[in-house]
C-alpha cells in the first residue's frame, strides 16, 4: 500500500495521498491544472498502482488551488502538435487512453470540483462515477471556439445529460454554471457553503469503506455494461474525426488566435466526406 508519507514532491503534477481506505489524486499543475503529457503520464502510473492496492476502496480526484479543478489542455503544446501533424497520435490518443483508465478504474471514483472544470477538465471529471462541485463555478466544453471538439466529452457526457444538452455544451461552446450542470444531471451534488466538495467526497469515501468491496466493484461493472458496453470503440471512431479535423487550417488558426488574444479568422472550408474519417 502507498503510505501517506509517500505523497509526491512539489515537482510532480499529480499528488497522491493515500489514507486508511481511500486515495486522493490532486491535479497539481498551477495555475489552471492543465492536462499535459507529464500530467497524463503521472496520472496513468498512479491509476495503475492504486487499482492494484487492495486497501484502497475508493478514489477521489480534485484540483489544487482555487482557480480551476482543471481548465483543459495546454494550448501551446496543442498548437505545436497540430503543426507537426501528430496531435491525435501524441496528445488525444494517449489522453483518451488515460481517461478511459480512470473511467474503468475498478473501484468507486469521485470528482470533487473545487473550481472551474473546462474542456479536458470536464472530460476527466465525467470519467468518475460521482461528481460533486462547488456552487458558482464554470462548467463547459469550449473546444468549438478553437475549431475543435471534445472526444471523451461527446461520448461520456451524453450519458449523463442527454442529447439536447450535450448539443448545447459542444456546439455552442459556452460554459454553464455548476447549478445548471446539477439540474442537467452532469453534477450529482452541489456543495453548500458549510461543506466543501472535497469534504462531501470524503464522506462518500467513508461510506464506500463500510460497504463490501467485491459487491461495489461488481455493481460498478454492471452499471458500465448497461451504460456504455462499447465505449472504447465509440472513442476510437470519434478520434478518427479528430484526426480529420486536426489536419484542417482552422485547427491551427483556433488555438493560435486564442493564444494571441485576437479574434480567429476561420476559413470555413468544407471537410471531406465524413466517411473518409472512418
List keywords for this structure.
12 helices, 278 residues, globular, disordered C terminus, alpha/beta, four-stranded mixed beta sheet
Give a written overview of the molecule.
By secondary structure, this protein is α/β, with parallel strands linked by helices. It has a 6-stranded mixed β-sheet with strand order 1-2-3-5-7-10, with helices on both faces. A 4-stranded mixed β-sheet has the order 4-6-8-9. The protein is 48% helix and 15% strand. Helix 1 (37-52) links the parallel strand 2 and strand 3. The protein is globular and about 55 Å long. The longest helix is centred in the middle third of the chain and has 17 residues, at 87-103. Helix 3 runs antiparallel to helix 11 (231-246).
Strand content: 5-15%
Rounded average pLDDT:
88
Give the helix tally: 12
Categorize the overall geometry. globular
Biggest sheet descriptor: 6 strands, mixed
Judged by helices, strands and strand pairing, the structural class is: alpha/beta
What order do the helices and strands follow?
A: EEHEEHHEEHEEHHHEHEHHHH
Spatial strand arrangement across the major sheet: 1-2-3-5-7-10
Helix content: 40-55%
- How many β-strands, per DSSP? 10
Radius of gyration using CA atoms only: 18 Å
Amino acid at each position: 500500500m502507498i503510505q501517506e508519507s509517500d505523497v509526491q514532491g512539489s515537482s510532480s503534477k499529480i499528488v497522491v495521498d493515500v489514507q486508511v481506505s481511500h486515495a486522493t489524486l490532486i491535479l497539481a499543475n498551477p495555475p489552471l491544472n492543465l492536462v499535459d503529457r507529464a500530467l497524463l503520464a503521472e496520472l496513468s502510473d498512479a491509476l495503475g498502482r492504486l487499482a492494484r492496492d487492495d486497501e484502497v476502496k475508493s478514489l477521489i480526484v480534485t484540483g489544487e488551488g482555487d482557480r480551476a479543478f482543471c481548465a483543459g489542455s495546454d494550448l501551446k503544446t496543442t498548437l505545436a502538435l497540430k503543426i507537426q501533424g501528430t496531435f491525435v497520435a501524441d496528445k488525444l490518443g494517449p489522453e483518451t487512453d488515460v481517461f478511459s483508465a480512470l473511467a474503468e478504474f475498478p473501484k468507486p471514483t469521485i470528482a470533487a470540483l473545487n473550481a472551474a472544470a473546462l474542456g479536458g477538465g470536464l472530460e476527466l471529471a465525467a470519467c468518475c462515477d460521482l461528481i460533486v462541485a462547488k456552487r458558482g463555478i464554470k462548467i463547459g466544453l469550449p473546444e468549438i471556439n478553437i475549431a475543435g471538439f471534445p472526444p471523451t466529452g461527446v461520448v461520456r457526457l451524453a450519458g449523463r445529460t442527454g442529447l439536447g444538452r450535450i448539443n448545447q455544451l459542444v456546439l455552442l461552446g459556452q460554459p454553464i454554471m455548476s447549478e445548471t450542470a446539477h439540474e442537467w444531471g452532469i453534477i450529482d451534488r452541489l456543495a453548500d457553503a458549510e461543506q466543501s466538495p472535497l469534504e462531501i467526497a470524503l464522506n462518500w469515501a467513508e461510506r464506500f469503506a463500510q460497504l463490501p468491496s467485491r459487491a461495489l466493484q461488481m455493481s460498478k461493472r454492471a452499471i458500465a455494461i448497461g451504460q456504455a458496453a462499447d465505449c472504447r470503440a465509440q472513442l476510437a471512431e470519434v478520434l478518427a474525426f479528430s484526426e480529420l479535423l486536426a489536419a484542417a487550417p482552422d485547427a491551427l488558426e483556433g488555438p493560435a488566435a486564442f493564444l494571441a488574444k485576437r479574434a480567429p479568422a476561420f476559413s470555413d472550408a468544407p471537410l471531406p466526406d465524413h466517411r473518409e474519417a472512418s
